[in-house]
Amino acid sequence: MLAITLVGHSALLLSLPLRRRDPQRHLRVRNAIFRAWARGLLRGANVRIDVTGEPPPAGTSFVLVSNHLAYLDIPLLARFAQASFIGKAELRRWPLFGPAFVAADTIFIDRARKRDLVRVMAQMRASLARPLGVALFPEGTSGSGDALLPFKPSLLELAVREGAPVYCAVVDYDTPDGWPPPHVAVCWWGNMLFLPHAIQMLRLPFIEARICFLPPRAPAEDASNEHGSVGAAGRKQLANQLRQEMETAFSALRAARRRA
Question: Which tens digits make up the pLDDT trace of 96-146?
Fold first, then answer.
């Protein structure tokens, strides 16, 4: 997995000069490299994928909202959706993976600084204009997989303001019988250390990943006022609606896991 990331990072760096000469061609190359990296990483971890629903179409602008359970979420979503991911600022400092995230157009956010939202919104708008999707985790952190965490609605403002179609992805994981359960061996949350957790995860014979894409929806037309600004009510309304829909799908995935 480290080797795959190193090769992918190198390929992304080598493609950067093309971005200045031919932005559209670079976007196609970037998407192909990022998807190949995702496929290789998932194969390296022996992840078996069961997907339902239709992912966002390639070559379009969209906002993809997903629950967050593990660092595997990013290659899993990137396997099906062409998007820039919004991640916490600490990811930039990760050895090897950090520079790879930068080269893959990750949009980093410092949640401790409210003013950083202005910069992030500008980068999100630029990504949509390429056109390229924007993938975000409104929970703001990863959880144990028992339930969806509360949504932070601030990043959904761009979807409301720009009228971008909003897709939802719901992710769940399972492990083989007799091995540590997914909330221990796959989900990365709380005070878990990365390296011991990654070693334990890679000892698993395989990982079952279920991902469900919900039908796209447009933000409410009345979310903006007469001055074109977006109120907190519009963001919160959208966040509440998306969370309800995702909770229903997440419960269905959990039920399917128990039956299996």
Answer: 677 777 888 899 988 778 788 889 989 999 999 999 999 999 998 899 999
Q: Is the pTM of this model over 0.85?
A: yes
Q: Please list the alpha-helical segments (H only) found in 82-142.
A: 97-103, 116-129
Closest CA relative to residue 170, chosen from 104, 244, 112: 244
Q: What six digits make up the tokens of 152? A: 């932070």
Cβ(16)–Cβ(103) below 8 Å: yes
> Rounded distance, CA 39 to CA 55, Å?
16
Between the alpha carbon of residue 81 and those of residues 21, 74, 84, 91, 143, the distances in Å are 25, 10, 9, 20, 22
Task: Write the single-letter amino acid at 36.
Answer: A
Q: Would you give the end-to-end CA distance of the chain in angstroms?
A: 29
3-state secondary structure of 230: strand
Which one-letter DSSP state was computed for residue 224? B
Q: What pLDDT, in 10s, does the model give residues 201-220?
A: 999 999 999 999 999 987 54
